[in-house]
Amino acid sequence: MLVVLSVALMVVDARFALLKPVRSQMSLVLMQTYWITDLPQRLYQGVASQFGSRTELVAENEKLKTENLLLQGRMQKLAALTEQNVRLRELLNSSALVNEKVEVAELIGMDPNPFTHRIIINKGERDGVVLGQPVLDARGLMGQVVELMPYTSRVLLLTDTTHSIPVQVNRNGLRAIASGTGNPERLELRHVADTADIKEGDLLVSSGLGQRFPAGYPVATVKEVIHDSGQPFAIVRAVPTAALNRSRYLLLVFSDNRTPEERANDAAQAQEAEDKQ
To answer: pTM for this structure?
Structure first.
């Protein structure tokens, strides 16, 4: 009976338009059925897509942060190199650029002593880090390594009262010594003649004297110059270009051409030789 009824309905539906309203109503019912039966699959795909997209975005974000830091570190020397190129072309009609090797490090701790400006990074002797190694962030020089541990290092910041760095005015090459004041937002230039050509807004870059810091990296921007006719030296205050209280990812500058793995291996071999002795 059902077969006969089905055949009859198909014939009527094919030759007449009587069953179109019924088929339209049935499609609405079947549409809801299809939606309900497909719901678990769509929910699973949505959840999987959300978690997958978030993981990919986090990984991509970390990669872009690292690449951005490296690029900003390389671009820091642009202003200094431009002025250097002008001077060198006048003398030699040529220019030479030196690209130091760098490695990304992360800040993992700070010295709790409020009178000492030191931080701890997650790279140490096993990574090829050496004493006195320069450290910078995306904006400028931050300090130097003063203590080594196997997997971490302690960095002395520019603003510590015991720290000084040779600098020069990027505009005219005037040399000076920038010393820490204990204030994370200020450096002072010592023994600058009252008649020296230095003014507010001048960019101070590392001069490379002393062979500790590479030349040409931003150090600070002159904020205030006070001239006193009764004193032989002017009072010059500057603001560090590096974000000393905010940067988390830093760059370690290596002056040689060895890779971090080669430096770590050499350091490990030297440590083994010292232990044997």
So the answer is: 0.64
